[in-house]
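so my prof wants the structure for this chain in the tokens format not the other one, which i didnt know existed until like an hour ago. anyway here's the sequence
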Amino acid sequence: MLTMEKEKILSLLEKQGAEHFDPYWDALEENLLVAVSYYITNTSPKKHCNIRDVADFLKEESWFKKLSEFFETVSDSQDEKAAYVSIAAVSNEIMNGLVAGVLTKADKIPF
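here's what i got, hopefully its the right format
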């Protein structure tokens, strides 16, 4: 179970990108947030996650490798695994755009 305030973070991201509403990108962004936050909450001693943690993780060079290795161990019945599978299926170009969009929006959120 995620201890991240998912709805709050998604709401903040939506406000930051309101001028570019696109259901495809919104769904991918949400799935990326779910997958990364699940990874962080299950591998970090903090056991919670915020948007800054997600952004810091996405800035790591090997973030996708870490995520992929982690999700190999996660049961297919976990909702978070489905979120990971949906983002793992996109092309590198789409993934780069997705990450750039999340990071741009995250940088605008005041902390």
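also thought this was worth mentioning. The chain has one domain: 6-108.
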